Task: structure prediction
Amino acid sequence: MENDKTINVLNPLIVINNDRIQGYETAIAETEDQDLKSAFAKFIQTSRHCRDELVDAVTKLGGKPKEGTREDGKIYRAWMDFKSLLTGKDRKTILNSCEYGEDVALNSYEKAMKDPDLSTLQKMIVS
Result:
């Protein structure tokens, strides 16, 4: 199917957004700082919106949107929980963990934007 290449570019971004949602939910549980909880909740909303747009694009292409999260994302969230136990919910540690997750997401999006199989409309969704 000619849309398979495009679906294969978009589906990993759906999973990345699922990882972001889970990561920020973990971060909310790990912090006691209300300002961070509020910021993380907004990031969750943004990730859900992005995921929903990507799911819609994959569905319109006749594909099956990916569900779940990446295995290394699950391992990383477990590591966040463990570090939180050691550091006592340290603000800087939580923010550093979130920054790492954002770097992974950014790299995935940059890679997708360079893919020649995405149409202009699909690149607008990704950007």
User: Anything to note?
Assistant: The mean pLDDT is 87. The two ends are 25 Å apart (CA to CA). The chain has five helices and no strands. Residues 15 and 67 are 6 Å apart (CA to CA).
